């Protein structure tokens, strides 16, 4: 089926009936594999665009897809997924800049990017832990060193950022520094100090209602659920890693605000302003990310409200995932619902499928038992 046929099928199609978690996860992983196959270089294509077709390989999101494929491939003893993850990691080594940063945008070249570099660290760390290959460790350390060099004394990043704006979702970069710090003892304290500085700066940008100023791509007051969830999870994971209750509580304050809104409305919408007024479409990537945030909070607290919210989000996403449709979108998840919403208009981003896969794993009984054990150690 050509792109026009695929577009028509996507625009005309309704919601699907949810199947088992395993069927949806298999479809998501199948699509992620296809997104790698179409690039021919080992990286994962940024998205499938209903008008333009497949995008170029995207270093940033390929970086954090690596841990997803390794997690599932290792736990389910599927070596093909592990091999694919390592092909992605190998490609990432080849696109690292001489200064230690990774490029902005898609493709294999471009100016340095703080956020992209942070996200790729997750993949490098996972690849090193899987193989023990020191090339991945050295690459991660170079990336961490570059990030620390670019950080302002106040804890934020204002160079080599999207549109040169200051973003509170850089907490996800700070979390990556903590991950990198686990690989190198002599720089661990420096990376942890840099991460804490960013977390404290972001906490200073949080309002009493749980809103974070600067949580969006622009400098206005509206933000996609996607970047709001980035901000919350960076703080949450960082606070857990540092064993800092104040940082965790800041993340939980915003997560609880969104939890109350979902319990009231059924499911979270796609963007919000600083009064938490929402919009008409859904940002499905953000729904998947919040399912992950609530799953983590359930493991930390035992509060079943978090578990129910995560499960409800996943059930909603299962109805939105394409299963059995045209090959280019079979297993994919649109950026927005409806697909012509403002977030990733007419596109199926690879990062949405990555977070959906993670969310499916986080709410399954098998993975939940394993993660509860991890949380207690």
SSE topology sketch:
Elements: H1 3-12, H2 21-37, E1 47-49, E2 53-54, H3 59-75, H4 79-95, E3 102-103, E4 112-113, H5 114-131, H6 134-150, H7 171-181, H8 185-204, E5 223-224, H9 225-242, H10 245-265, E6 271-272, E7 282-283, H11 284-301, H12 304-320, E8 336-337, E9 347-349, H13 350-363, H14 365-376
Antiparallel strand pairs: 1-2, 1-9, 3-4, 5-6, 7-8
Helix pairs in contact: 2-13, 3-4, 3-5, 3-13, 4-5, 5-6, 5-7, 6-7, 7-8, 7-9, 8-9, 9-10, 9-11, 11-12, 11-13, 12-13
Q: Can you offer a commentary on this structure?
A:
The model has no long low-confidence stretch (mean pLDDT 94). The protein has 14 helices and 9 strands. The chain is globular, with a radius of gyration of 19 Å. The chain is mainly α and 377 residues long. The chain has a single domain (3-376), classed as Alpha/alpha barrel (Glycosyltransferase), CATH 1.50.10. Helix 2 (21-37) runs antiparallel to helix 13. 52% of the residues are buried. The chain starts with a helix and ends with a helix. Helix content is 60%, strand content 5%. It has a 3-stranded antiparallel β-sheet. The protein has a two-stranded antiparallel sheet with strand order 3-4. Strands 5-6 form a two-stranded antiparallel ribbon.
């Amino acid at each position: 089926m050509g792109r026009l046929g695929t577009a028509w099928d996507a625009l005309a199609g309704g919601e699907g009936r949810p199947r088992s978690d395993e069927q949806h996860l298999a479809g998501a992983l199948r699509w992620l594999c296809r997104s790698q196959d179409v690039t021919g270089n080992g990286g994962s294509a940024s998205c499938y665009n209903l008008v333009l077709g497949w995008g170029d390989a995207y270093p940033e999101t390929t970086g954090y897809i690596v841990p997803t494929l390794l997690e599932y491939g290792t736990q389910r003893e599927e070596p093909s997924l592990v091999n694919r993850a390592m092909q992605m990691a190998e490609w990432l080594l080849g696109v690292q800049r001489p200064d230690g940063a990774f490029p902005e945008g898609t493709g294999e070249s471009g100016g340095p990017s703080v956020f992209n570099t942070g996200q790729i660290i997750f993949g490098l760390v996972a690849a090193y832990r899987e193989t023990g290959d020191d090339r991945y460790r050295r690459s991660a350390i170079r990336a961490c060193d570059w990030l620390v060099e670019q950080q302002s004394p106040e804890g934020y990043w204002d160079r080599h950022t999207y549109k040169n704006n200051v973003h509170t979702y850089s907490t996800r970069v700070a979390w990556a520094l903590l991950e990198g710090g686990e690989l190198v003892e002599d720089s661990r304290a420096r990376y942890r100090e840099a991460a804490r500085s960013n977390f404290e700066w972001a906490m200073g940008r949080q309002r009493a209602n749980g809103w974070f100023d600067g949580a969006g791509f622009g400098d206005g007051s509206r933000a996609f659920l996607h970047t709001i969830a980035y901000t919350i999870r960076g703080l949450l994971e960082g606070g857990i890693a540092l064993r800092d209750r104040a940082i965790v509580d800041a993340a939980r304050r915003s997560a609880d605000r969104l939890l109350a809104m979902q319990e009231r409305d059924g499911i979270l919408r796609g963007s919000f302003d600083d009064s938490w007024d929402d919009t008409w479409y859904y940002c499905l990537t953000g729904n998947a990310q919040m399912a992950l945030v609530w799953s983590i909070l359930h493991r930390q607290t035992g509060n079943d409200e978090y578990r129910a919210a995560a499960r409800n989000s996943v059930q909603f996403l299962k109805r939105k995932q394409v299963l059995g449709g045209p090959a280019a979108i079979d297993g994919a998840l649109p950026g927005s619902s409806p697909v012509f919403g403002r977030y990733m208009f007419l596109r199926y981003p690879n990062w949405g499928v990555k977070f959906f896969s993670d969310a499916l794993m986080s709410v399954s009984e098998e993975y939940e038992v394993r993660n509860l054990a991890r949380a207690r150690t």
